[in-house]
Write a sequence for this structure.
């Protein structure tokens, strides 16, 4: 069929998407590439469709194609109610391409302006796809021939006086269904005497309305298992299909009272707006659902998505959602966010513990001694599990089942820290402090997610419910390579060799030169030398000594580059002692080699790498 025919079927909800499909993920650059291919007469690939007969339509949920996409508030496909007295065509393979054609020819794409606020609507202006009728694409590595761009209304107005550009909205081609309508376009845009412009308009019209360039292969079998198998096979060649998408589709079809897709998406959005914001995925939420619903096997495998399991998940969904929200709030209280949470999977056992005890939101702020100590134990375990490498990687499903069983048996009154650590050690995921871990921790650098977790764990005075910044104790500006090479002796010769400069710069961003400071203090500190800043900020002798002790700082702080290396070595030694003290486990079990894992289980547990 032609592109226009396909888009008209989409317009009438006769070409739709089964719930098995993931959502739209293409970037604007990918949309531009497909339209460049269309203009050049290149094939845009074949499509696989499923003819859904009336007797099958009512058994599943279906969604419409995106037309107006916004990275701010329009990421989810609209639900489509299909009458059960007619058949429809559901797209199994080709959703991203068809959606891109639909957006370019009929709709808009609102993506975030560079460096703009992610949580502000005005950061995502509405853009339409335009073609420059007066020239080809600027030189580019993508090999694009035609000059296509997503532009706002304001950008079009600003370009009105540019003699090198005549921006033509691609959507006008879709509206010009007849040849005579196409012939009027060059006149409308004042390019009737520009042969190249007329040629481009005619070429695009031919590709959209005349050439039958879309090839559909149709599956007519109504057996969902066969359709799922086909879907997995055809998608495995592109973006690897997450089995959570299968779970979503089956849950959507089998839930009786709730729309599973909407419920999961709403929960993901809610979790990700907690605190300073997280980046939890649909996979994490659905894996949490399997764990909290006490489904025996928590792997993303089709055999686990039984009617009984889906019914259990639906019946417990409200409780599960509440527990996950509280768990996310606890992680935010521990100072974590999307930028510092290095493994989303840690949310799952925390949520299961909240679920097991039926903890209310007030648990987060309860001043009872038992609750304070319990939160401290939970916080310590969460942060230390993020510090140790490999805890949340391979073997995740096995670890989650172990943790769930311990919390189920021993987590009725308090977080069973010692038992959990023993179970982790038996799985080769010990949190014990050894020389290798110490060296690994000391090598952490500024900007890393684990760095924040380490500093928050090592220093008791840090109230993670407040906003703390990772700060260079000795200012980064004084250890700039060019500034260091510019230092001179009295006779004009360089003070520092290249090797000395490299040594100083190499240690500048490492853990011994980092601390956590409250946001306002860090901003005020700026590039001040540490010795003068501490004296100015903590003028009293007792205050001064308390600050040094709290942050494991040596008695003498450096004023300039000459004192940095001695300070660095002294702080490093202090951190070694503190790491051994603060990161010690309660398990009493030495680290052991990882237990052998069945290869099928190993392959099935890689969905949530840390």
């Amino acid at each position: 069929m032609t592109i226009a025919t396909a888009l008209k079927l989409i317009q009438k909800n006769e070409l739709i998407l089964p719930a098995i499909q993931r959502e739209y993920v293409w970037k604007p650059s990918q949309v531009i590439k497909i339209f460049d291919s269309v203009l050049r007469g290149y094939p845009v690939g074949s499509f696989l469709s499923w003819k859904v007969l009336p007797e099958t339509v009512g058994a599943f949920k279906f969604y419409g194609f995106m037309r107006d996409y916004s990275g701010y508030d329009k990421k989810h496909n609209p639900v489509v109610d299909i009458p059960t007295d007619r058949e429809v065509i559901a797209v199994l393979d080709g959703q991203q391409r068809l959606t891109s054609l639909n957006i370019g020819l009929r709709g808009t794409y609102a993506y975030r302006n560079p460096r703009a606020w992610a949580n502000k609507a005005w950061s995502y202006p509405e853009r339409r796809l335009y073609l420059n009728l007066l020239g080809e694409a600027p030189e580019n590595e993508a090999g694009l021939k035609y000059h296509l761009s997503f532009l706002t209304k304001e950008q079009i107005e600003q370009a009105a006086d540019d003699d090198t550009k005549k921006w033509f909205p691609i959507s006008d081609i879709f509206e010009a269904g007849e040849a005579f309508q196409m012939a009027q376009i060059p006149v409308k845009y004042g390019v009737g005497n520009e042969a190249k412009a007329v040629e481009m308009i005619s070429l695009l019209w031919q590709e959209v309305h005349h050439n039958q360039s879309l090839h559909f292969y149709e599956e007519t079998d109504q057996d969902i298992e066969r359709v799922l198998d086909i879907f997995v096979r055809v998608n495995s060649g592109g973006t690897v299909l997450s089995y959570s998408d299968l779970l979503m589709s089956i849950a959507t079809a089998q839930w009786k009272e709730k729309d599973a897709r909407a419920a999961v998406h709403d929960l993901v959005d809610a979790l990700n707006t907690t605190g300073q914001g997280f980046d939890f995925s649909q996979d994490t939420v659905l894996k949490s659902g399997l764990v909290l619903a006490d489904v025996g096997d928590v792997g993303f495998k089709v055999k686990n998505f039984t009617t009984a399991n889906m019914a259990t998940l639906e019946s417990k969904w409200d409780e599960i959602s509440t527990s996950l929200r509280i768990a996310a709030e606890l992680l935010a209280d521990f100072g974590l966010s999307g930028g510092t949470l290095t493994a989303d999977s840690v949310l799952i056992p925390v949520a299961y513990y909240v679920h097991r005890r039926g903890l209310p939101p007030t648990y987060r702020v309860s001043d009872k001694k038992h609750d304070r100590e319990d939160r401290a134990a939970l916080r310590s375990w969460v942060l230390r599990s993020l510090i140790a490498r490999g805890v949340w990687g391979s073997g995740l499903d096995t670890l989650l089942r172990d943790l769930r069983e311990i919390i189920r048996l021993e987590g009725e009154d308090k977080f069973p820290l010692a038992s959990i650590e023993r179970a982790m050690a038996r799985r080769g995921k010990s949190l014990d402090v050894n020389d290798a871990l110490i060296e690994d921790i000391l090598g952490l650098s500024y900007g890393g997610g684990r760095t924040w977790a380490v500093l928050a764990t090592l220093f008791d005075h840090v109230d993670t419910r407040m906003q703390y910044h990772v700060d260079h104790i000795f200012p980064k500006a004084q250890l700039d390579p060019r500034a260091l090479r510019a230092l001179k002796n009295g006779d004009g010769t360089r003070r520092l060799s290249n090797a000395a400069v490299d040594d100083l710069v190499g240690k500048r961003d490492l853990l011994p030169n980092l601390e956590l400071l409250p946001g306002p203090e860090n901003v005020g500190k700026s590039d001040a030398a540490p010795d003068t800043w501490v004296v100015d900020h903590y003028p009293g002798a007792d205050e001064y000594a308390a600050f040094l002790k709290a942050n494991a700082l040596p008695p003498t702080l450096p004023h300039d580059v000459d004192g940095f290396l001695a300070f660095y070595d002294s702080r490093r030694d202090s951190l070694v002692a503190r790491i051994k003290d603060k990161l010690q486990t309660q398990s009493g079990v030495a680290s052991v080699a990882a237990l052998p894992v069945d290869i099928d289980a190993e392959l099935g547990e890689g969905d949530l790498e840390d």
Notes: The chain has a mean pLDDT of 86. The two ends are 44 Å apart (CA to CA). The first helix runs from residue 3 to 11.
